[in-house]
Amino acid sequence: MVSIAEADTEDLSRESRQRAVRRFATSDAVFKNLTRGAAILVLVVLAGVAFSLVTGSFLAFKTFGLGFLTTESWNPVKENFGALAPIYGTIVTSIIAMVFAVPIGIGIAIFLTETCPRPLRRPIGIAVELLAGIPSIIYGIWGLFVFSPFLQRTLQPFLIDTFHGIPFLSSLFAGPPYGIGVLTAGLILAIMVLPFITSIARDVFATVPAVLKESAYGLGMTTWEVTTKIVIPYTRVALIGGIMLGLGRALGETMAVTFVIGNAHRITPSLLAPGTTISASIANEFTEATGDLYTSSLIALGLVLFVITFIVLAIARLMLAQMKKKAGG
Description:
By secondary structure, this protein is mostly helical. It contains 15 helices and 2 strands. Helix content is about 80%, strand content about 0%.
């Protein structure tokens, strides 16, 4: 009888283990399929967006050909459209934004992680993160009614007077001080992308092992040497990823730029002159687009922005791959 009871107990134990294994296998299969479905959904959405942009812009490229990308003229009355001015404005404002935001953002992150007094780290960090939560339209309103008049009275006249008569720089900062313009839009973008770069840089700097920095200080290195030779090289891959995230935000920003750039479809060498970007042009004119060619041209602008963003991200991935390869070698 004892052997029969033990056998029954063993059978029940074996059956319970089999049920547990089947349950785990089912849950793993469900989890695997859910994650795979999420990944496939992202690809489907991306392909759907690309397909919609290509089909919607077909008429514009059929009418103007590749000249659409090299023509500055934008005349809805004559149905003559070119994307060169918005492309130029998008690239220039993004470059201005990154020129200011990257060194300032990294500097703030270094200050917070290396030299800031501990009681001030949390308040300053929270203040930086709050900048990221401000809606872009608030930046636009502030830029139009506060920042632009300030630049019109102070910075722009100073730049015009300082660089007057100097080759290249005189044309780069020429013209009357409108307040609004490409430079103003670039500075607004710099303020907007600054918290993203700062937050990511601060987080990745905090991952540097303390023993590395302590060893460097023990060898007699200064804070500058520790930062430039230990902290930044150790985190360069993640740091570039954060910078690319900020650049993607700058390329696609709409409302804040629309308020302060002036929305003029022309290319001028002066950064103080009004201009436009791809996203600002679409936001301003899509509701007014009456003809099929007009609508298709605006969708073609969206396709161009999509391609520019894709190229930027692809270049960033190649850079990261090369850096990882060199680090591994």
